[in-house]
Amino acid sequence: MSDKVSRGRLREQVADRLEQLQKEGVWVLSIPERELDVPAADGSLESVEAEALACVACRLHETRTKVVFGVGSPNARLMFIGEGPGRDEDLQGEPFVGRAGQLLDKIIAAMGFEREQVYIANAVKCRPPQNRDPQADEVSACKSFLIRQVEIIRPEIIVLLGRSAVGAVLDLSAPLSRLRGNFRDWNGVKVMCTYHPAYLLRNPSAKAMVWEDMKRVRDTLAASGEDA
Ligand code: SF4
User: Fold this and answer.
1) Considering only CA atoms, which residue is closest to atom 3 of ligand 1?
2) Is residue 37, in this structure, part of any structural domain at all?
3) What CATH number does the domain containing 79 carry?
4) Which of 77, 146, 161, 176 is most deeply packed, by most CB within 10 A?
């Protein structure tokens, strides 16, 4: 049996089992966290994306229009992670495309980069209904995708946008006012926590703090002497 055929058969078996579990009332499967040195199936971002596009591991798959995997350069030195797709992202299948996305584009441009040079993703890949915060079991079910994205891209710096993204990646629940401003370490990657662009639309006075954070990120990247 060829690899292609056996993988197809395996996929069918997994889909059958998931359907059976749903009939039995199991809606969330906890996927163990992977360490950053565990390779993806064939080592490519595309293979992880293909897996996400077919994912039914948590209840968010029921109400999504499109899986929003991530966008940008697979060689990016800078990665932004938000909490989850909103309405526009769910419809278009791309993260940060609404008003908050336009503001993020301006922030990226002010740092001297283009959107295509960085990588943008979310902690959960499917839209939580009514734009509610992703629940802990949904974040846990989706975390394997995020970890593998980081593992493949290997950015030098990750910017976590908003409280939910900080909770999902660093498992910290302190207020952003205390967490922002300094780099933290996550599996050897520098991480900067800051406010989500949607928060800035509601609270423009916080823009100055985000800009302070982004200048530290920009200057740290510049100090290592390459473009993002
Ligand atoms: Fe799968 Fe993540 Fe979507 Fe849940 S949010 S169905 S874990 S891709």
Assistant:
1) 126
2) no
3) 3.40.470.10
4) 161
Residue 53 in any domain: the answer is no
Q: Are β-strands 119-122 and 157-161 bridged in parallel, bridged antiparallel, or unpaired?
A: unpaired
From the alpha carbon of 52, which atom of ligand 1 is closest? 8
56 CA: nearest ligand 1 atom: 6
Task: Please tell me the distance from the alpha carbon of residue 213 to that of residue 228, in angstroms, as a whole number.
Answer: 17
Give residue 71's domain range.
66-227
List the beta bridge partners of residue 164: none
Which pTM value belongs to this model?
0.82
In the reported structure, the alpha carbon of residue 121 is separated from the centroid of ligand 1 by a whole-number distance in angstroms of 13
Could you read off the pLDDT of 62-103 as tens digits, one per residue? 999 999 999 999 999 999 999 999 999 999 999 999 999 999
Between CA 113 and CA 43 the distance in angstroms is 27
* pLDDT > 90: percent of the chain: 75
